[in-house]
Amino acid sequence: MSVKTTATIASFGGKLLKLTHDAPSTKCNMAFNLYLPPQASESRKVPVLIYLAGLTCTGDNGAEKGFFQHAASQKGIAIVYPDTSPRGLNIPGEDTSFDFGTGASFYLDATKPPYSPSYKMSSYITSDLPQTLFSTFPNQLDSSRVSIMGHSMGGHGALTLFMKNPSRYKSVSAFAPVANPMNCPWGKKAFEGYFGSREECGGLWSGNDATELVRGFADRGGEEGKEGEGKGKGKGLEVLIDVGTEDNFYKQGQLLPENFMEAARGQDGVKVRFQEGYDHSYHFISTFADEHVAYHAKYLLG
User: Fold this and answer.
1) Cβ–Cβ < 8 Å for 139, 205
2) By CB neighbour count within 10 A (0-12 exposed, 13-18 middle, 19+ buried), where does 113 fall?
3) Residue 182's closest CA among 259, 95, 88, 125?
4) pLDDT tens digits for range 131-177
5) Cα–Cα distance between 267 and 263 in angstroms, integer?
6) Model pTM greater than 0.85?
7) CB neighbourhood size of 180 (10 A)
8) For 75, phi and psi rounded to 5 degrees?
9) Which of 14, 130, 219, 285 is the most buried if burial means most Cβ atoms within 10 Å?
């Protein structure tokens, strides 16, 4: 999976690379951004923090508006900004609405045609992308130290991918995640379109819902799910989540963080903060970006 560099941009003493590669899982060319902090060199590997963006976004949104590079440059952490879906597949209806299809993969592996052959974003994030990263930058990036975070749909992706693969990631955090998609309008539409009906595919629905997964995560005491490669340490979930009190999507019932909190009751490592006056935008994300990078640094650098 050869990588093409389309731009190199100086940022906080490091460099932001705009990259593309062909991905077997999505059967198309995928673009992503990689921030290499000034500490990264041919003789020093740095840990990696993946940021998953929300509906309608690309890998450019977080890189250009999230301001994660500020703290990442100080801590010596690389940031990866993947795209939010496959693109240019010409599937009928994939560009019809903002909350399904292009830019709206929900970071899952679709099982329902016509999306099942190529909408494999869970496989892309956990397999194709890391293989490309660590083979292309073997001396700069440390494959043994990887964490994940995300916003909105990407927060859903970060939470579910972490809980399904806890040995793959050191830590997880989220900004305004879609925390219980099988019970909100966005999630119901996505799961119906990518999996099939709840009645026929209920296991896939619950298996890709953070609120349902955290119940199992608690029951297993941190043990690995089906897609993982080992076992956790039996400490339950540790996560940092921020939600703005003036977030219109929170008010509309798209995020449902309270459902997640109730399902995670008793897991002391679950920290959900309601930030007074903040909305769903990158003004909110950039305000708390440094805190989230610092949170991950405890696990990546400790």
Assistant:
1) no
2) exposed
3) 259
4) 999 999 999 999 999 999 999 999 999 999 999 999 999 999 999 99
5) 9
6) yes
7) 24
8) -85, -20
9) 285
Tokens of 301: 């650098």
Q: Contact at 8 Å (CB) between 107 and 121? A: yes
SS3 of residue 46 by DSSP:
strand
Report which residue type is found at 167: S
Which residues have a Cβ under 8 Å from the Cβ of 300 and sit 6 or more positions away?
47, 49, 77, 145, 147, 170, 171
Phi, psi dihedral angles at 210 (to 5 degrees): -60, -35
Report which secondary-structure segment, H or E, holds 16.
strand 14-23
Q: What's the angle, vertex CA 56, arms to CA 80 and CA 186, rounded to 5?
A: 110
Residue type, 212: E
Q: What is the DSSP string of 100-122?
A: BBTTB-TT-B--STTTTTT-BHH
**Interior/surface letters 57-67, b for 16+ CB within 10 angstroms, e for the rest:** bbbbbbbbbbb
* Sheet containing 46-52, strands listed edge to edge, beginning at the edge strand earlier in sequence: 3-11, 14-23, 28-36, 78-82, 46-52, 141-151, 172-175, 239-244, 270-275
Residue type, 100: F
Q: What is the pLDDT of residue 235?
A: 61
Coil, strand or helix at 144:
strand
Q: Count CB neighbours of 1 within 10 A.
A: 14
Mean pLDDT (the chain) is: 94
Q: Which two tokens stand for residue 78?
A: 């690389």
Catalytic positions = 152, 247, 280
